[in-house]
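Troubleshooting log. The previous structure file for this entry was overwritten by mistake, so regenerating from the original sequence record. Sequence copied from the archived sheet and checked twice against the printout by T.R.
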Amino acid sequence: MGSRIQMAKLMNRLLLKRFTLLQSFILLCVVTLIVVLAVITMEFAWAESLRLRFGETDWVLPSLVTAVLLTVAAGIVTMAVLFYRWKLKRPLELLKQASENISANDLGFRISYDSRDEMGELIAVFENMRSQLEKNVKTLWRSVEERKQINAIFAHDLRTPLSVLKGNAELLATYLPEKKLSEEKVLDLIHTMNLHIQRLESYAEAMNSIQRLEDVPLNCQWMDTLSLTALLDGSAEQIARQFGIRFVSSLEYDNASIHVDPYLVMQIFENMVANGVRYAASQVNVHYVIQEGTMKITVSDDGPGFSNEALYKAILPFYRGEVWDATEHRGLGLYVCKVFCVKHEGSLQIANGTHGGGSVTASIGTQVDK
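Regenerated output below.
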């Protein structure tokens, strides 16, 4: 008997879910009217039995009227309660909870209601709105984070050209009045300063338009190998001098012209050297190898080397590891190197040297013209 009642309730609910709100309301009205009329019929029969038993009395008719009015009122209230519980209560609870979640900036939820009526359609529309809002918020958040990241990277990379300009300006101010610098050396210093000024101008232009690091344009040009490596070595010497570290470089290739973006190559190189001098005990070594189609730059140091964790995470953005200079080091250097190497159709490898210390190798795709 109980199973039949449960089955009947289930069938009724499934049937009501297929009806619209108006159809459900009309159905409940009809059912309620039938039940109320049946009860009123029974009440009239009850009143007639009382009249036959007690005769014509003054209280039978008022009792009958009262019973009929109470039956009608109870039928209306019961119909309203059933309509609310079956068609409105659950969807309104879902919408209320969803609104509270959105007010609390929590969009990581799902809302659904298994019904084909207007409330089901409303919840479906609400879920679509929540899903689109979640996508928009994620897109906005990602855009803000990428902009913060690119600003941090620009701030990180501006320090090296500024340091070079400062060092060369101090050198000129100290030795030029005493005529201790040859004309050739002065011109070389001015040329180096001019290149770094161009880098700063390029940074300023890029910061107005670039939203992501991957959007940095690749402007390749032909450069003399010895001139490029000499420029890189000059920046490395400035960086190493700030940390009191010795710098040594070597080159495996005859003079040639290579097709690269010199500014991005300088950023790759300077970030690698800055990472090396930060951990070096006394010396940083740079080794250039230029083969057919590839320029490899290896920066190694005599420090403790990379930890097992750092070997896997050092190229991730904002990974710092155990560094003492946490206020200056934002964990972006090697990540920048990786992205710019990939833009040159190259790669970045991190390893520990056979005799200790860390080693970072940047492979940069290029064309070689002898």
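Strands lie at 221-224, 246-252, 257-260, 283-291, 294-301, 347-352, 358-365, 367-369. Archived copy saved in two places this time.
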